[in-house]
Design goal:
Length: 89
Amino acid sequence: MSNHTPLSNESVTPSSPEADRNEERRSHRAVRSLKRPLQFVSFWVAIALPFVYLPLLTRGLGDPQVTFSFLMLLALNVFALYIGHGYGE
């Protein structure tokens, strides 16, 4: 009887530098493929958000919930501006 195992030893060997580079290229490509749509959405969210918090401003910022909502929307607007700033380039 032979001591043959159905599993290959390739799965336990350390990865080669070439395999690491291929994985890095794949992840870099994935990031690049998501960058443009994310910038597009962020750009248009940054354009639209001021129209959303205008009613909050007309209502007044005396209520703590309205003030909190306004500040959160303002923070989201700044974040969207940061992410979407390079969209038109």
